[in-house]
Amino acid sequence: MKKVKQLAALGLSVAMIAGLCACGDNGGQEGSSTPDSGVQDSSAQESSSQDSSQEPSSQEAASNETQESGKPVTLEWWYRGNGVQKDTEMVEDAFNELLQTYPGMENVTVHFNCYTGGEYKNSVILAQSASQQIDILNTVGLDFAEEVEKGSFLALDDYLSSNEALKGELPDWLWELGSIDGHTYIVPNYQRAANMMYFITPKEYMDKYGDIDAMREVFQDKDRNVETVAATLEEYCAAVQAGEGTQKYMPSLGTSYSTQYGFMDRYDTIYGKFIKFQDSDKVENIYMTEDILKAYEISAEWYKKGYVHPDILTISAKDFEGANMMNDISYIYCMNNQAGDEGSVSQYYSETYGFEVYAIPIFTNYYITNTWAAGGNGITAKCANPDKAMRLIELMTTEEGTELYNLVVYGIEGTHYEKLDDTHIKTLEYDGTQGGVDASYAAMKWIMGNTFHAYLNQGCKDGDNELALEINNATDNDISDLMGFSANVADIATQLEQTQAVTDEYRMALESGAMGDDWKSYYDDYAGKMNNAGLQDILAALQEQVDTFKAK
Fold first, then answer.
1. Report field, pTM of the whole predicted structure over 0.90
2. pLDDT digit string (tens) for 146-185?
3. In sequence order, what are the residues at sequence separation of 6 or more whose Cβ sits closer than 8 angstroms to the Cβ of residue 140?
4. Which of 242, 368, 417, 434 has its CA 20 to 30 A from that of 14?
């Protein structure tokens, strides 16, 4: 199997799946620059591991001394999440009390260093610069490959070769995401990675004004194009508007939700807005593809015809989703991501929204790309007790540590949740977000380890974990040929920053269709500024890396 070949700046892509049971925070793909940790490179590590006669390193010696002496060990675990919350210290104390009941962890305590998305990366950079203790480092929000390149992580090959329980817990394609040049550096987080998009519309409207079979045929046709999708949608929208006698709106083809229409949803993230579709080897800017250019044109037409809300640039996207599909300014349909057949997903969203809907799968099989893969946890090269750190990661990933995992994710039973049965809980201060969290304490379960060992809360449906495992392992899944790819952007960092600023300036106006007849000149201005900002340098550099990766 292919492993990551480039050593550089891109971390594992993080995109949480938008089901209510999943915690919907998207990780970053930002670059970072931190001092070299001074550890040996991967080739040296490999040589060392192969030479059994070599003297143990100072780290190994310190670790062995600590473990043999039974002296207390404190592990500093750094990760991105919800930050320090009201009851974080309480949960940490309970976690450590439970942790010490597990074999090999009798003298170990863990300190949670949890930071919100924006502050995590900067906090890690400062800690590394100050040589602050970090034993376990989570890659969500960091650049995994860059961290490996500068020596931040310890190679886990020897640990994994002797730990079949942990190795077998995750599928082979997922281990690829934690490996670089033949060495594994992190234990990836495990969640539902197989993705499916659904076209969702109120049953009332479709039964009165549409043709569900024709709609299904359009969205499940792999040869469809933007024009055929748009024509079907426009016919439906026009019928609803005429029949209801009130203005009803739909998402423009060119919005950020355009992937929900199914003509741009199967791609790998190369870096940020730069992508490669599964059926192509070409690296493109997602906002400048042939399909999106046609979508801009059609969206402008829809805006003029009144199918897109006139205030699309200022109103909240939340006004057009979920239960709001039936309000006065609503989109008449939207897409979302959920697991299951058409009937079960339709039922799920009908119960969630409070009115009946159709949920038509886009295509007929699931797909897995690096875009949907989360990061993982690795042991830092400076960790004085790597055996203990590895044991903790093992517990957070395998069935043995299920109780520990749920404690750090949901908090304390009786304080933050009540247990309904062996697999179901009810969080006590449920606020309807993050799949159902407690206002006093809640972690993002997809960051912590193995979500398939998590309890099901009120944001989940029965069988979610079993279904997620089933679709992750389905034999007909489309699995990207770029699983594990990481890009080296050190030489194009300035161009990336400049082009991002241009995109931020132009994107929303183009996507919404709000420019009307002026959309093309507006796009030409955008394209010109992108080229002046270094777009071609970026595309050339990333294309070379993709080609090299695929050739090996």
1. no
2. 788 889 999 999 999 999 999 999 988 888 888 888 899 9
3. 11, 12, 14, 27, 79, 80, 120, 189, 374, 375, 447
4. 417
